[in-house]
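Now for our target.
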Amino acid sequence: MTTMYDKLLQLSLFQGLTLKDFTSILSKVKFRFEKYQAGDTIIREGDDCKRVAFLLDGEIMKKTVTSGEHPMEVNEWFTAPLTFELSSLFGLQTTYRSTYIACTDASVMWMHKRFLVEELNIYPIVDMNYRNIMSAQVQRMNDYLWSAPPSTDKGYAARFFLQRMEQMQGKKVFRALRADLAAHMNVSFNKISVVLPELQKKGVLTYDRGVITIPEAARLKELAE
């Protein structure tokens, strides 16, 4: 039977901690546990990120919407364990970038971020895990920014989709009209009208009336490299 310790140990922030460490943490840090039903909104875009949220059980959908005159929505599905937007805790903007909705019954553990600073940082493994998580995100963005551009239009489109995904695992759905998608990619409408059918023929995505479904992001990565 999976214990609470086992579930917490699967979270990237807590990996490497011992049961003794967890017992000490639980005596000092106030955690709040909440249950959500399918369809419930757990976090809304723009909410203040004052607490760290951990998905312990269930499946959720992350919805990210662009601003501006060319609407685009990106949906990603995740299963537990998951930590929500550690990057939004500190910095210039401390609000959530995305909305998170429960797809099944879900269990979420909440912790005020002051405990991360005042209590958890005394454990070197937690501090190192946090640094590694943040560094990995920055390195991933730098890889896309400074690596050689794809040599084909299909590769360029594949990289565009990949850059807007948090993880490779799980189904992804992009919602955008072709004209809006072309504007985001900075290419002509004719070009995007050719590339999408080509990617669909390769089986890496499907496109129907403004809905692009990507079942396996790993296949896009092969084209983008």
In short: The chain has two domains: 4-58+78-135, 148-224. The domain at 148-224 is CATH 1.10.10.10 (Arc Repressor Mutant, subunit A). The chain has a mean pLDDT of 91. The chain has eight helices and eleven strands.
